[in-house]
Amino acid sequence: MANQLFRKKKINAILPDGEGEIHGSESKLHRILNVRDLTFFGIAAVIGAGIFSTIGSAAFHGGPGVSLLFVITAITCGFSALCYAEFASRVPVSGSAYTYAYVSFGELVAWIIGWALILEYAIGNIVVAISWSSYFNNLLQGLNIHLPFWLTTNLTTAKEALAAVNAQLATGAAATPEMQTIINGFNSAPDLGGTKLFLNLPAFLIVALITALAYIGMKESKKSANAMVVFKIIVIIFVIIIGFFYVDTANWNPFMPNGFTGVLQGVSAVFYAYIGFDAISTTAEECENPQRDLPRGMMYALLICTILYILIALVLTGMVNYSELKVDDPLAYVFDKLGLKWIGYIISISAVVATTSVLLVFQLGQPRIWMTMSRDGLLPKRFSNVHKKYKTPAFATIVTGFLVGIPALFLPSSIMTDLTSIGTLFAFVLVCLGVLLLPKLRAEGSGKFKLPYINAQFILPLIVAGFIFLFRERVTASVTNLFNENHQEVLFLLFIIIAIVLSVFTFIRKYSLIPVLGALSCLYLMIEIPVNSWFWFFVWMGIGLVIYFIYGYRKSKLATEQV
Q: Which residues are listed as membrane-spanning (predicted)?
């Protein structure tokens, strides 16, 4: 049974899928994307809510030193991007990390990765849609257009907002117009069987519009994404230039007010900003020259976004004290404080455009992963149907629209953010480790990008030893209080054990440095995510395994070939 669970696809057997040689020419997608389009898709996915909102929370904890966190995160993502580039060059077929896991680890791991990627793309887009709704509503209010409160949020968020207002009023604080709006809005919401009805209608409508755009074709999606990327880059560069004139360098001292620990507190928020660069790999079958352009597009997008994030972080923490930045809209806040409200208005428009582009890229990515899984027999055949006119995975695109749009109407975004990060990092870890198995497959592939080999035999053990030395107090405390320790520290100890084991294998087998560093870096970021999110991640994985053993295990194309 183990052989069946870990049966692998050969690269030479996968490549014809992208050319319609196996499933017929009607299943072939249009090859219309060049390296510029791919770079823009990467920027569209990465420059989103992070640069307009979560960067504020990270700066509040880390101070100006948060700019270093963007560098660290970029390096971590860079390791993963290089591994993705190696795979994308050798296996230029839609499916992203799912397909890469299929050729390196086998079917069961591939399914697990494919199921985890739903967290990144579909579940992640629920968060983006809710964020978009917030930006859009703020923009409308700036134009003195006020939608009913019950049509702009969900029940959980509305209750939390009302509780916060009541807590303030209980202290004797006077009711502000904003507080009164929440009270009146909650009381005026329709009553449905004794429960107040709240619907995030803007979030649902934008998902519907983006899904329609993704459905009618890659050419239209490409033009829309490129236009949105050009606009938001112009706005961000404009903000950086204007902002530097208002920077007070005294605000950069101290550079790390809460030490390096404070900087690392923003890991989840900062990494969430980078999620999405791998979405480029899902468009492999629509690239003119995937083996050459996919690696370039990933690296160019990552480099450009990192530079912009670092500059924005320095401008923000230079314009005001870092302690003021724990707000939902830090960019608009700093300019409003300086009396430049017109710039804040431009930023609000750009935030709406930026999150729209993220929605588009993720709504394009998820259906193409499902399409590939369906070709392999792990999902019903309808998921691999390509529209005869539009040449898009039509059914999968519609299902993705419902999977994102309906929950966006009712659910809060809080726990889904961490779930998205875990799912993405999990995929990154396995892609990095999967590259270590690629040398055995190299004769079958003919990729044009080759990951540089750096012998990690001695380097990795030294790095792990140095890490343990730097965190020796935490290691000692965790071991001493093992049975009285919280689950977060148990995850930390587990990471240490995995790092030591991987160091031993690296010393014996002389693994390449970039993949092993990428895997360990992503794994470390994973353990910093709250334990509650890990619980829901394991629940999600359990559901996925049940579906696999009920359907995919028996229907797998490789299973039917072996019969």
A: 38-60, 66-87, 108-132, 197-217, 229-247, 259-277, 298-322, 342-365, 392-413, 419-439, 451-470, 490-508, 513-529, 535-553
